[in-house]
Amino acid sequence: MNKIIGIDTIEKVNINGINQYISIKSINIEKPLLLILHGGPGDTSLPLVHKYNRALESHYVVVVWEQRGAGKSYYKFKANEAICIDTFVEDAFELAKILLQRFKQNKLYLIGHSWGSVIGLKLIEKHYELFHTYIGCGQVVNMRKAMQISYDYAIEKNKDKNNLKILSKLKEIDCSYNGQNWMNDLLFVTKQVVKHKGSLYNQTNWNKFIWCFLTSKEYSLRDLIKRQKGSYQAIKYLWQELMTVNFEKIKQFQVPIIFMEGRYDYQVSAKVAEEYYNRITSQKRIYWFEKSCHFPQWCEANKFNDIVIGLLNGSD
């Protein structure tokens, strides 16, 4: 009888010439591979996955990737370095191949959250042969539409509360975010969406999640500083391109698609994701999380984990 071997490690891996960190956890290295692509861009999630999605480790080899320039993988992008969405798609492709070779598997399961869902959809479109199933969580479809809905939500909530000063500032903002002060505008609108409970369910801030990072044994103070720098840098380099993302013309995939959507997501509109889902003609399924906004995988973790585990026995 073969001995069951588990794994619990954080490793540095060279991906396309850049050292990047991955966490690998499982009770059994023979379990199917599950790769998780965090949001942002640059918004690493390792402590959150370890806290809320630990149940997955009994059924999968769970790999959490700290993407190029983010969190533990932070470095200052070079002036001549090509940093674009495809850079991260190719990094994810390379990492998938590394993992499949190492664990002697033919395919893996893929989860993409928010920004990670952009990488995820592009990845399965281009390299579908490597994946069993794709799970989009807080799925990005048409970024301009989603940002308009976020902006409208901020306007509506401040009108309801007669916050004239904030309304005045909001009305000066172009939510295409291509003006001179686009980053400040983006951060201001995002702050309003968060404050009015459109990002984290029934919460007016992200303190619940921040505390996970502050108390994590796997995230040092240095890592926290790097995460902050990496998030700012990634937004600066990638947001303008992210605003052009639009998957609406792609209606068929070679991989089964699952969307996990928070009913009250106004950070990246669940309504836009639902409209797109209804137009997909290939194998698909959508799950709604009634007590979630943009983070169903952590706000309703038990339900999320059960669905992902259910993929392995066909009970999804």
Would you give an account of this structure?
- The structure is a single chain.
- The protein is α/β, with parallel strands linked by helices.
- It folds into two domains: 7-142 and 200-310, Rossmann fold (3-Layer(aba) Sandwich), CATH 3.40.50; 147-195.
- It has helices spanning 46-52, 85-102, 115-126, 143-160, 164-170, 182-195, 207-215, 221-242, 270-279, 296-299, 301-310; strands at residues 7-15, 18-26, 33-37, 61-66, 108-113, 131-137, 257-262, 284-289.
- Strands 1-2-4-3-5-6-7-8 form an eight-stranded mixed sheet.
- Helix 9 links the parallel strand 7 (257-262) and strand 8 (284-289).
- The model has no long low-confidence stretch (mean pLDDT 96).
Brief summary:
The chain is an alpha/beta fold. It contains eleven helices and eight strands. A hairpin with a 2-residue loop joins strand 1 and strand 2 (18-26).
